[in-house]
Amino acid sequence: MNVNGILYGTTEYGGGKPSGGHGLGVVFSLDPKSGDETDEPFKKRGAKYPAAGLIYANGLLYGTTAQGGGPKERGYGTVFSVDPGTGTRSILHAFSGLDGAYPGAAVIDVKGVLYGTTGAGGSAGDGTVFSIDLSSGAETVLYSFQNNGVDGQYASGLVAVKGVLYGTTEEGGSTGDGVVFAIDPKTGTETVLHTFSGADGNLPKAGLTAVNGILYGTTARGGAYDGGTVFSLDPEAGTETVVYSFCKQKKNCPDGANPVASLIDVKGTLYGTTGSGGANQYGTAFSLNPVTGAETVLYSFCSQVDCTDGWVPSGALLNLNGTLYGTTGYSGFTKCQNLHDEYCGGVVFSLKP
Fold it and tell me: Which pLDDT value is given to residue 338?
């Protein structure tokens, strides 16, 4: 998240004793001009493991943690706020399980109301769509996924278009391969717009991006070569189209494979990342023409000695004045024996398309 030229984000792990935390994740700020970074670690007996990005609304940053919020480090996750000026962090809502559990996606702000999803919990344990009124702090479960998963299971992030919320679920639907759904936030009515079937995508882990009324997203698997896809969906007609299938050369997938992050739109071009594939097999940053379906690998990670440029990018990119910024899940290679140890901390990178 860009706030006045400063980048803000989260790490799911890290922030250990040297920084005053317990390895439960941090909220960080980064000046892209100087490279100066500061972080505020999450500590015991509170929220922990912020797995999603941040948003900015009404002078505060808002995010989610996948766990914590309950007594003695227990809890089903939280929605929290951070004052970027002071670093003060507050829990807006701690989930109880019945109203949702383990949120792994960012929230969105629509006219002073936050909307988000949980990956589990709710009346059937398959996740929820919820709202939080920033004026009152009241949380409302708009929808609990149920119906034996036919309506979707384990929802990802949301996008709002003309008063309707749209999202994806990793699994569920009549095939079990995931769905694209719509939610009317006024009534809580959920509609499955598309059910994936493998050839058109499978396992959509990321939220959607709206461009001129058309929704674009990614699936981590499926498509013509089972390396994942970029797809489009017309919400009015319900028509889904595979714009690009990754891993055309299945042996090494030089065009990338397994995208798990949302796309961004910059002047009609889509940009994203893949978690594997590329020249070195550790992920890519790519661009895609949504009209022609032409894909270009902008960068293959692990191109530097010992992968000091990072590997396995899993977050969405951010455009700031024509430069793309993003994160990788890991960095280093030969010393990275345990993916959560000090040698695997990941990087923040910049990329000029």
Answer: 59
Interatomic CA distance for residues 168 and 178, integer angstroms: 7
Q: Which residues contact 284 (CB under 8 A, 6 or more apart)?
A: 255, 256, 273, 274, 277, 278, 297, 298, 299, 300, 301, 313
Q: Which residues, at least 6 apart from 321, have a Cβ–Cβ distance to it below 8 Å?
A: none
* Residue tagged 């550790």 (tokens): 282
pLDDT in tens, 108-154: 999 999 999 999 999 999 999 999 999 999 999 999 999 788 999 99
Handedness of CA 46, 205, 148, 163 (dihedral sign): positive
Secondary structure (3-state) at 242 = strand
pLDDT given for residue 335 in this prediction: 63
Tokens 């009317």 belong to: 184
Closest among 43, 40, 99, 87 to 61, alpha carbons compared: 87
Q: How many CB atoms lie within 10 A of CB 11?
A: 22
Q: In what order do the strands lie in the sheet with 295-300?
A: 264-266, 269-274, 284-288, 295-300
Give yes or no for a contact between 238 and 215, defined as CB atoms under 8 angstroms apart: no
pTM: 0.94
Q: What is the CB-side half-sphere exposure of residue 252 using CA atoms within 13 A? A: 6
Query: Which tokens go with 92?
Result: 């807006």
Structure tokens at 179: 């769905």
Instruction: DSSP letter for 7, please.
Output: E
For residue 15, the tally of other CB atoms under 10 A from its CB is: 22
Query: And the tokens for 64?
Result: 């989610």
Coil, helix or strand at residue 17: helix
Q: What is the mean pLDDT of residues 204-210?
A: 97
Q: The tokens of 40 are what?
A: 């505020």
Q: Tell me the two tokens of residue 32.
A: 């892209």
Nearest to 105 by CA among 192, 190, 10, 221: 10
pLDDT tens figures, 292-339: 999 999 999 999 998 999 999 989 999 999 999 999 998 877 766 555
Q: What is the mean pLDDT of the chain?
A: 93
